[in-house]
Amino acid sequence: MAKQHDQQFKEEAVEYYFDHKDLGLRGCAENLGVGYSTLSKWVRIYSTNNGTIPTRGSGNYASDVEKENARLQRELRDAKDALDVLKKAISILGK
User: Fold this and answer.
1) Rounded CA gap, 32 and 10, in Å?
2) What stretch or stretches form a coiled coil here (predicted)?
3) Could you say which residues of the chain have pLDDT below 50?
């Protein structure tokens, strides 16, 4: 499972990069213990969002409609996965 980082850590990591540009993104990422592409994404987001990194944690929805939409999407995905398993089982048993 991917390591979760809070917003403060992300912003401090980006600031660390800006303070240590001589190390480059790869060197800063290694020092911080995060992936190169992860730090690169945080820097890009930070630069385009006026010095902040908006985050969305699990269960952190802007409205009840978004929360319900996410629940329904999960339910649909799970139903599709179950249907795929059943289709495979039928094809195996039907031979």
Assistant:
1) 10
2) 62-89
3) 1-3
